[in-house]
Amino acid sequence: MIRVQAVAPGSLGAALGLTPGTELLAINARPLADFLDWEFLTADEHFMLHVKSPAGEEVEYDIRRPEGWPMGVTLEPPRIRRCANHCDFCFVDGNPDDLRKPLYIRDDDYRLSFRYGNFATLTNLKPWDVERIVEYRLSPLYVSVHATDATVRRWLLRNPEAPEILPQLAALGERGIRFHTQVVLVPGVNDGAVLRATLDDLYGLGDAVLSVSVVPVALTEFSKHHLVRSPGRDDCRAALATVNAVAALALAERGFPWCYGADDLYLQAAEALPDASWYGDFEQRENGVGAVRYLETRIAAARAELAVHSGKRIGVVTGTAMGRLMPKVLAGLGEATGATFELVVLENSLYGAAVTTAGLLPGAGFRHALRSRNDLDLVLLPAEAANDDLRFIDDVKVNDLAAELPMEVRLSYDFADALSECGTRNAECGIAEGGRSRGDTHLDIPHSTFRIPHLGEGNA
Ligand code: SF4
């Protein structure tokens, strides 16, 4: 059973009289388990919908939907599928105490993998889940592989029951499902020969695996450092050499690199990022793969639309990872807008300096850095640091922060969203964010928080 949270005016749902609290029981006598059933089964033009009103009245509607008329129904948030693993590097264990409850949920949910691109391990898949994936063609899925060797993977996941990943991917692949995959690199466990074997095995699955990314494990001050260590420069260089060897093979045989190092891997290896063309459609950019080049591309494309901010002094706040690359990204923005940009690089005061991504910066950190900056006219904060309720990771509300600071505040993914004429108009209309162009996919759960455009951890 699923329940209505809101109904859009003028929609078919409103015309039917659906209201918040209405239980959506079945379509064509098929019980509705979650949003997937709802979305796929209401896609037909003709269906029978069985509901129960908040007053307890059961009604069955015979619906013939005119093309283009949306159902307009927002469902209550889904019950998240919990994780069956206990990775030593789990970011949930790396959270400090006293954050909001959803940040302690270990999600591992193939539905969110399909919908939002969250990485899932598939270790908790039941046979009926597999059938749903195939029936609804939930493809591509984003899968945390980490290692194809079953023993190594079970060790990494701390799950002796974890099924072998290669047969899982192969079986789903034969039925038409495709995957973007990731390897979180844990030095001494899945690097070296294990990494090469993992990449070779995934490559051997052919078309089923669309891409693989190698992401250095990200630990916080609170992680289990006695069990897992961060990779050093040599670890990252060795991993990049393996990635590049496989990418060269893929480039020769398939015409695209297929295998990508995360931006953070290059940064930690102190090696130059590839050009934007290396990343194709930037399909793993939210996993921190090609995120920097994507940002540059977005800025370049939007240059002509950037509103004139002549004479303004604009602060750009980011974490220490992007801080190293941002001067190059910002180059030319001043010329395009007539403004002067100042980079404000923040260490993470909540998770510790080892967490370098902008997306996990706390509101208190922004406040501390900006409250006496009367010299700035406008400040751009990383939009991925706020959830859909416009709260930062430490629960500070964006609007409360904006009211406290002496300058105008806008959230921005890529500058263009906040500095273009459209972004400027939004701000003038009282919208604090430059524009959530990615469709508000940000559920308030840990992996969504990590899957961010700026060098995300992607630790699933
Ligand atoms: S990192 Fe992901 S898969 Fe591992 S324990 Fe945490 S939530 Fe589960």
Give a summary of the structure in a few sentences.
This protein is of the alpha/beta class.
Question: Can you describe what's shown?
Answer:
Helix 8 (233-254) crosses helix 9. Helices cover 32% and strands 17% of the residues. 44% of the residues are buried. It has helices at 12-16, 35-41, 110-116, 127-135, 150-157, 165-174, 192-203, 233-254, 263-269, 291-302, 320-323, 326-330, 333-337, 363-370, 398-404, 416-419, 421-428, 446-450, and strands spanning 2-7, 23-27, 30-31, 46-52, 58-64, 73-75, 141-144, 179-185, 209-216, 259-261, 313-319, 340-346, 378-382, 408-412. With 460 residues, the protein is α/β, with parallel strands linked by helices. The strands form 3 sheets. Strands 1, 2, 3, 4, 5 and 6 form a 6-stranded antiparallel beta sheet that branches. A 4-stranded parallel beta sheet has the order 7-8-9-10. Residues 428-460 have low confidence and may be disordered. It contains 18 helices and 14 strands. Bound molecules: iron/sulfur cluster. Iron/sulfur cluster binds at residues 83, 85-87, 90, 92, 106, 108, 121, 459-460.
Q: Mind summarizing the main beta sheet?
A: 6 strands, antiparallel
| Strand fraction | 15-25%
Arithmetic mean pLDDT: 89
Low-confidence segments: 428-460
Task: Give the helix/strand layout.
Elements: E1 2-7, H1 12-16, E2 23-27, E3 30-31, H2 35-41, E4 46-52, E5 58-64, E6 73-75, H3 110-116, H4 127-135, E7 141-144, H5 150-157, H6 165-174, E8 179-185, H7 192-203, E9 209-216, H8 233-254, E10 259-261, H9 263-269, H10 291-302, E11 313-319, H11 320-323, H12 326-330, H13 333-337, E12 340-346, H14 363-370, E13 378-382, H15 398-404, E14 408-412, H16 416-419, H17 421-428, H18 446-450
Parallel strand pairs: 7-8, 8-9, 9-10, 11-12, 11-13, 13-14
Antiparallel strand pairs: 1-2, 1-6, 2-3, 2-4, 4-5
Bound molecules: iron/sulfur cluster.
